[in-house]
Amino acid sequence: MKRIIVIVGMMFSLLSLMQADGQQRPREMPREDVVDVPAISEGLCVSNLFQTNMVLQRDKPINIWGWANPGEKVTVSFAGQEVTTQAREDRSWQVTLNPIPANSTPQTMTIRGADRTITLENILVGDVWLLGGQSNMEFPIASVDDGELEIVSANSPQIRLLTVPQGKGFDSVRSFERLYEWSSWSNRHFRKGDWDVCSPETVREFSAIGYVFGRRLHMATGVPIGLIDTSIGGTTVETWTPLEVLEQIEGRETREMLEDWNARIAAYDPQADLQARIAAYEASIKARKERGEPIPPNSAPPSDLRPGPAADRNRPGYCYASVIRPLEGFSIKGVLFHQGFNNCFNGSAGARMYYQVFGRMITAWRAAFRDPQLAFCIIALPTAGEPQTAENFVQAMYDVGPYIREAQYRTFRNFYDAGDKAIGYVSTYDLRKSWYHPQIKIPVGERAAKWALVTQYGILSGRDAEQYWLPPSITRVEAVDGTLRLYFSTEVRTKDDADGKLLGFAIAGEDRRFFPADVRYYTEKSDDGQNQPREQRHILVLSSPFVPQPVHYRYAWARNPMGNIVNSRGVPLATQRSDNWILEETPEKIPVPQGMSPETAQRYIGNRLRELLKQADLERRYLEAKRTLQELAPLVERGKTN
User: Fold this and answer.
1) How far apart are CA 586 and CA 309, in angstroms?
2) 104 and 173 share a domain?
3) In degrees rounded to 5, what are phi and psi of residue 512?
4) Cα 493 to the chain's mean position, in Å?
């Protein structure tokens, strides 16, 4: 057995050396958790971003970088261009090639040093898209609805795939390793860091949203597509933002978040942590013995010193330093970003922090890739939990999820309304499943593709081309005769047009008590009184018998909301509201007993508000039933008379 292990280890060492020269190893070969190619090798090397099978961005300068011996001359040749530079004292070198048009014919890049040449083959020139966010972007095509059909159809040699490893936080260098990376979530290793030609074998573990997006773009344009997945499950918006950018944000919630992290890092004692874990282990062993249970044969007390919060992947700036900074300066076409779930745990303050940070994160990513107008599509928070219904409507509104969606939509509107035509937005709340990883991913990728094909490629075009992706916006709100009148940027309709009933709005008076709104189109009477009244499908009228004087509205306001209002092309109206009331004080502020910790107080308030809202739903349904009986009474009496 030992001899077999040694032979296998030698095989992988040989394959690692082959990879350093740009060659690929077989994907399916089983591996131990060892590094195949380090981030920076000895002697002449190139960043692991540049490999055989990659795609380079067309029509933009192409930066290529690596390392060599200090003072060594390095020459890069590609597509008829040749550039020579000299390695600096720190071994780093970089060259820039002039922009190149799209080319679907495989080409070879050579990187020559004093005594070594690196050859990278099968390189295409097209459009490179970066995929960012957390697990709903990371979610593989093999695990989604209809994913197997996508997999067996994925014979697309003009599409290339790269999943970037998670890196080493603030210790990361300007490259990344190529390795089999352990996932505690899946309890297995995943191959990361290698460019692959898209095939049924290589696509299975790749981002479902990203692959579907890239497939649609390639089918529509014929241009080679490179997809780089940088997403990491369970991560927050602040970890994807450069620390130096976060430190410049003046919002109170962001400052408090940074102060909290600094205090936790400063207070952490690795020895005390180890002693606490040893004590927990000993208590566990004692309990097993008392129950007469066997002790596992390899059981041993912990002995490692852990880095603590300093190495937490959600430490502010950590994932940016780990994954994005090694890519800085690489030319790409644009970004899809799908994130939000792990920012749903800090109530209204967390949502306010999200809004303060998210726009700055987008601007920082654009700076990282040297393009202030880099295409950037926001994919909003997906559903989770039980669906909102007519029965639990108000109770389901108590959730921080819609506050995060609102922050995402407001961020989009800030850029778009300022004239930014490279910003995009995709809703996902109408693709309803109760799991926080809803498997309905194919439509999400296709929605993002519509945005790109309209705004970045001009292929979906025409007078109303924006209707393919742009959510309808509310341009004006009026309170009129006990109703709210909402004016839209375009006509709206129901998603299915089955019975025409418009769902998803709630309204409230000054008492902050929301109720589901009855929604109808505004009807304009004819001036002469001779013609039929005209329905104005760009104006909605909201009312409720339980809200005599409404002042505010909310739409699709739940984690898994009702809501079926779309534009003429079926693009959903985004989650939004007109009020600024916070989660913890709607419908009322709950007094907190003295001495409670902030975490306990948050749970205390939440439990009592949910109970209040549950009672409000019951009272509303009782009153609705009573009204229905009153409306039916005359009909019943006429039936008796007849």
Assistant:
1) 34
2) yes
3) 70, 15
4) 28
